[in-house]
Specification:
CATH class: Alpha Beta
Structural class: alpha+beta
Number of helices: 4
Helix content: 25-40%
Distance between the termini: 38 Å
Radius of gyration: 14 Å
Oligomer: single chain
Strand order of the largest sheet: 1-2-3-4-5
Strand content: 25-35%
Number of domains: 1
CATH architecture: 3-Layer(aba) Sandwich
């Protein structure tokens, strides 16, 4: 049975392993960076199978106007089971209807997000990170 938790403490090692298992392009071996990613995220929703972290929605938000869903990662073994959709639903539940939920999609996930209620926006600008 999959259990979802809000603001559950996770380690950089757990997050890195999940990123690796999900196939998401993240620095899964850089534990210092991963730890900062965990510590600075005001909203973290996690999915667990027993004691194993199988999904995460890590968001940066002010809780009143906008929420940037920075990481949505689900272990490949669970990717067709609705885990990502539930992580997003729970994120929306926390931020409320007055807060926009925003994300940048990986190219291979572009078809997924419209299926679960996201509108496509063409007006995004980006300065890419150097490393």
């Amino acid at each position: 049975m999959i259990v979802y938790k809000k603001d559950q403490t996770i380690s950089a090692k757990q997050l890195g392993l999940l990123f690796k298992r999900s196939g998401i392009n993240r620095p899964y071996e850089d534990t210092v960076r991963l730890e900062k990613m965990i510590q600075t995220a005001p909203l973290l929703i996690t999915a667990w199978e027993e004691k194993e972290l199988i999904g995460v929605a890590r968001s940066l938000t002010d809780f009143v106007y906008c929420c940037y869903l920075s990481d949505l990662a689900v272990d490949k073994k669970y990717q067709k089971d609705g885990v990502g959709k539930e992580l997003i639903r729970q994120t929306q539940e926390v931020i409320g209807e007055a807060c926009s939920l925003i994300l940048l999609s990986a190219p291979e996930a572009m078809e997924y997000y419209p299926k679960i209620g996201f509108d496509h926006a063409d007006h995004c600008f980006l300065i890419k990170r150097k490393w």
